[in-house]
TrEMBL record:
PANTHER family according to UniProt: XANTHINE DEHYDROGENASE SUBUNIT C-RELATED (PTHR42659:SF2)
PROSITE patterns hit by this protein: FAD_PCMH
Protein name: FAD binding domain-containing protein
Lineage: Bacteria, Bacillati, Actinomycetota, Actinomycetes, Pseudonocardiales
Pfam families (alphabetical): CO_deh_flav_C (PF03450), FAD_binding_5 (PF00941)
Keyword field contains Transit peptide: no
């Protein structure tokens, strides 16, 4: 397959990139890693007249820990580059685990963190991890810069709060509390496939009690699905077999995943219940 004809430009600044994508003369698409966009071009599912390559813009290929202890990842940072950083793996291990589950090494060495987030396939790992870690998205457009929390950024399948004339310049992950437990689990048909269903768990522990719990599923809806029913069961409780069974029961009763040719809704729901039990147990053990 071959893409439709398009023009290509690699601007030197964010301002130039915004001017190119906000023009009303030609449809434009932003190119960073291209691991989602290029196949769509080849199948002619996307037919932009202009590709705007942002990988040469200074600063967008950098990631760093800010003065407040937050992790800031620029729009052109490759997934493999981010995951290989010892500081990221130590301070944000859930994010590193989510990246490790993405596709294959070849994809992770070309794909960008922000590109996966902006593309927003709800079965992908990074949108769920960003929601679990309460990430913030920095969007630059003709009217200036705004910051959108993860809870508001993901709108629907392949749809985000990012406007057509805006560029996602970086994603910001808040500093994580020392001793916080975490786990990422997913079910795939084959290694490297998108998740049939997956779950992120982040929890804090006080003595023998789970003092705070965040649970987010991927592959369970049109956006990452934060799941208060199980969070309520687990928060303030001792994580014994009965509590874990109650959390799994909440998944079976309240989670409403889609069904498709890959798995029925009932299958996804049951798999999600088992994954949650495993993930919560692992996260609890990691608080020790």
């Amino acid at each position: 397959m071959k893409p439709s004809p398009f023009d290509y430009v690699a601007p030197d600044t964010v301002a130039e990139a915004i001017a190119l994508i906000s023009g009303d003369v030609r449809e434009a698409k932003v190119l960073a890693g291209g691991q989602s966009l290029v196949p769509m071009l080849s199948m002619r599912l996307a037919r932009p007249e202009l590709l705007v390559d942002i990988t040469r813009i200074p600063g967008l290929g950098e990631h760093r820990v800010g003065p407040g202890g937050e992790l800031r990842i620029g729009a052109a940072v490759r997934q493999a580059t981010a995951a290989a950083d010892p500081e990221l793996r130590t301070g944000w291990p859930l994010l590193a685990a989510a990246i490790d589950h993405i596709g294959h090494p070849q994809i992770r060495h070309r794909g960008t963190v922000c590109g996966s987030l902006a593309h927003h396939d709800p079965a992908a790992e990074l949108p769920a991890a960003a929601t679990a870690l309460d990430a913030r998205f920095v969007l630059a457009g003709p009217a200036g810069t705004r910051t959108v929390p993860a809870a508001e950024f993901f709108v629907a399948t392949f749809e985000t709060a990012l406007a057509d004339d805006e560029l996602l310049t970086e994603v910001v992950f808040p500093a994580q509390s020392p001793g916080r437990g975490w786990a990422f689990e997913e079910l795939t048909r084959r290694h490297g496939d998108f998740a049939t269903v997956g779950v992120c768990v982040v929890l804090d522990r006080t003595a023998d009690i789970a003092s705070a719990v965040r649970i987010v599923f991927c592959g369970a809806g049109a956006t990452p699905v934060r799941f208060p029913p199980a969070e309520t069961v687990l928060t303030g409780a001792r994580l014994d077999a009965g509590t874990l069974a109650d959390a799994a029961a909440a998944v079976r009763e309240h989670l409403n995943p889609p069904g498709d040719v890959h798995a029925s809704a009932d299958y996804r729901r049951e798999a999600a219940a088992h994954l949650l039990t495993r993930a919560v147990t692992t996260a609890w053990e990691r608080t020790r």
